[in-house]
Here is the input.
Amino acid sequence: MKRKIISGERLAGELDVSRQALHKQIRLLRKSGYKIEGKPRSGYRLTKNPEILLPEQILSALQTKKIGKKIFHFNSIDSTQNKAKELANHSEPEGTMVVAERQIAGRGRFGSKWISSEGGIWVSLILRPQIAPQQVPLISLIVSLAISDAMEETCKVRCGLKWPNDIVISSKSNVRSLKTKTIKSSSECYKKVCGILTEMSAESERVHWVVLGFGINVNNNLPRHLHRQATTLKDIVGEKVDRVTLLQNILKKIESVYDQFLREGFSMLKNEYVQKSILKKGEPIFISDFSNKTEGKFSDIDEDGSMILLSKDNQPLRFLSGDITLKTKISRHAN
Ligand code: BTN
Here is the structure.
């Protein structure tokens, strides 16, 4: 869409500022990445928005009541989780969002490192749900559903959920045959595109806050060593993705599933989760939780969000958390 040229006189008049103050603001906007053409005796034209997740841009078309309504934006930060936890301890309200263009100490589950360079979506949200602490892990499950829906609608891609809270995209991997030295595009595998991390502060019966972090590989470049297990939306779609629109849609979907979850619990959302899960009944998997690695067949996701595995001797085993490896379509947990 080609925007109109607006005269400096009109802009200054509408904003009720002097021409000098207007020039100063335009200089500042250009500094933050807006491309503004300035034509003598004619006016100004905005030709390009900055490629950053500016709060004003996000808020301009955000259709939520609470989620993302207060935004703390950073060009660079250690981890949005740390900042959001600090803000939660200082009584910032539910829905407050911390977003960064890059993180230098991004964290994943099980203490792993989360590589977060420019171009991704690195977000932490403060939630204050009135639920029992044992129900908090369900929030990651329902949020993975919301994020994958928003990614499918906005980017026209097909996503799968890998319990408990990874979003993956199926991609055909290029298999190099050692004998013939040819490359066959055949075996399907899942690559991670988004990971979710929830941290909380609670007493035995009461949750003070939950900090829900999600990292999405969007337009960022992944280091080579992650190419086998992770991908970006840009690579799947074939072009850069509009991060502002994607984030606005994600926040809207999160609010909707979160409200439904608080009203009705997980049972209504469970079917949707299972349908989108890449784990199908009988699928051979390994699950690692801290020091143990267990082999078995996937059986079900329970109402409390736990995963039920059928062990080698057909015993149902229940896991509240863990990292799954599919025996056939390998995908590991890094980003
Ligand atoms: C995982 O899959 O291991 C979870 C990754 C969570 C990464 C996000 S990025 C925003 C927020 N800040 C962090 O340091 N981690 C989460």
Q: What stands out?
A: The pocket of biotin is lined by residues 79-81, 103, 106-109, 112, 114, 116, 122-124, 166, 195-197, 213-215 (CB under 6 Å). The helical segments are 8-15, 19-31, 55-60, 80-89, 136-155, 233-237, 243-264, 267-276. Confidence is low (pLDDT under 50) at residues 173-186.
